[in-house]
Amino acid sequence: MSVKRRPGLPGLPARPGLPALPALALLLVALAGACSNKPPDDPKSYVEEVAAGRAIKDNEFNTAANSPVPANRRAEILPLAYFPIDPEYKVATTLTPSNDNTVIQMATSTGGQAQFRRVGTFEFSLKGQPFKLTAFHEVGARGDTLFVPFTDLTSGNETYSAGRFLELQPSVSGIYEIDFNRAFFPYCYYNITYECPISPRENHLQIPVRAGERLKKEEAKG
Fold first, then answer.
1. Which of 56, 98, 133, 144 is exposed most, by the fewest CB atoms within 10 A?
2. In this structure, what DSSP letter does residue 182 have?
3. Domain boundaries, the chain
4. Which pTM was predicted?
5. Closest residue by Cα to residue 14 from 3, 24, 23
6. How many beta carbons lie within 10 A of that of residue 32, not counting itself?
């Protein structure tokens, strides 16, 4: 079996899933630019924006020649399943840069290893509790998108056991927005020929993050 060494979505260096789907890549850039660094002033508009992005992604996965979803599984997988869009899962934070240049080995879905460096950490409050996530960048990868894989108390029962991904574009101001409503599964969930990193232990959140992509109800264990 050949392994496609490309991550979960456009923008990520050379590992989570596959080359960017054209329209989807443009959509992600547009949505990243539209994001504010505070909860949305107009929740209805925000919900509509996220829902529209999900619909475009479903269409791309269903029709694109390089879709990560095999043609014989599209009826089963699409449309993708999500938790209800909740603006409270969109939080403002700042990046504390890391001075540690150590290369870490991140296990992958095929039993391999991917090399990453820590870019920095995000500290934020979610549902009244303090949390921290590390942002990474793959060694040798082009671009400077921040890769933020994570697991939480839904992992393995309501969401993919190996974790979900977030991608953030660099911010000159150092102010960022972590929007868990945009958390997505890596491509290896849909297709085992893809190789993707498994979220490291340091990015496990001790809270159920019921936002973003989820397992379909018939797959969920709880």
1. 144
2. G
3. 22-203
4. 0.83
5. 3
6. 17
